[in-house]
Amino acid sequence: MDKIIPHCCPRCNSHSLYKYGKDKFGNQKYQCRICKHQFAPDFISSGSKGAKPLPPEQRKYPSCPICGKAAFLHHNFDDYSNYRCCDKKCNHSFFQAKPTVKIPPSMSNIFGKNDFKRMRHSIHLVITALVMFYIGGTSFRKIALSLNLLYHIKISHVTISDWCKKFAPIFHTKMITLMPALDFNSDEWHADETVVKIKGVKHYIWFIIDSETRFVLGFHLSPHRDSPQAFSLFDSVKDYGKPNSIVSDRYSAYKVPTKSIFGVRHIRVTSFKDDISNNVIEAFNKQFKYWYKTRYGFHSFESANSMIMMFVFFYNFIRPHSSLSNLTPAEVAGFKCSERQRNSLLLVS
């Protein structure tokens, strides 16, 4: 049964019409079955010189990023849509992620204390234990032994473990507050994933790093290794800056998220002999693995998520890097902080 089209041919007044694509302005075109005349009923016929473009605010689909003209839906997938410019001279194809399918990144779900109140021990002692664990790469038992030998303070290794998890929201809130003021507009952002174990089960931690500042822009912990996880990670950091390109390995999960969210060049590194390598994030993964070995795995998803967030905070704001002239990635990105403020209360007072 033919669909009823509430228009008639302007040449022969026939109602026997069918859709005939769209013109270069995004207007729906029809063709008469009788006289074969093509026209756009809402505006002047698209075959004439007086054809008018549909205003961008009234277009059903996004405009072409190259020429600004209307686009049509070329392919519709679960996580993204593929659009193509209506102008055949441009014919640009672009992608757009669907906001309804992106899952929130794990770094946005941090649970614990929001202050240092009602603590049996001083803040200075807590900060000392945190620095020893997240920067020194020391186990909880060795930290407890060191505090007993140096300060004659007896603390259980379980208590230190709780400190390293429960104070994550404080540092997370501070990092979210400071990051919008930093400059991450650089040539390349590097993305990669690595494996961690939670209760003996393999999970994947996704990272994205700015090449110039070595700043870890975000992470996402997930039991899956597929394209939706890359969508989630990229969408969470897209407002922090605009890179010229995204660098990753040959894994195909990064391909479509890069096009649909950033719309920039995607460099897929093949080997170490390439002009552009992924060594920036590989070096970070090496440091992360060195710290991760002191844990011998994690006992729950929530504790793993909180402790990884704390590690990222200390890496970005506290730990000086020799490759950055003994500055922190945050300082290279434009953050200014006194030595006393950074060393005493670690930016959270």
Describe this structure in words.
The chain has 349 residues and is an alpha+beta fold. The chain has 3 domains: 1-52, no CATH class; 55-101, no CATH class; 103-332 and 337-349, Ribonuclease H-like superfamily/Ribonuclease H (Nucleotidyltransferase, domain 5, 2-Layer Sandwich). The chain contains 10 helices and 11 strands. It has helices at 123-134, 140-151, 157-166, 168-178, 227-237, 255-262, 279-292, 301-318, 329-332, 339-344; strands spanning 17-22, 28-32, 38-39, 71-76, 80-85, 93-97, 188-198, 201-210, 216-222, 245-248, 265-268. The strands form 3 sheets. Strands 9-8-7-10-11 form a 5-stranded mixed β-sheet, sandwiched between helices. It has a 3-stranded antiparallel β-sheet with strand order 1-2-3, with no helix packed on it. A 3-stranded antiparallel β-sheet has the order 4-5-6. The chain starts with 16 loop residues before the first strand and ends in a 5-residue tail after the last helix. Residues 44-50 have low confidence and may be disordered.
**Helical residue percent?**
25-40%
| CATH fold label of the largest domain | Nucleotidyltransferase, domain 5
CATH architecture of the largest domain, by name, is 2-Layer Sandwich
What would CATH call the class of the largest domain?
Alpha Beta
CATH homolog superfamily of the largest domain: Ribonuclease H-like superfamily/Ribonuclease H
Kindly report the spatial arrangement of strands forming the biggest sheet: 9-8-7-10-11
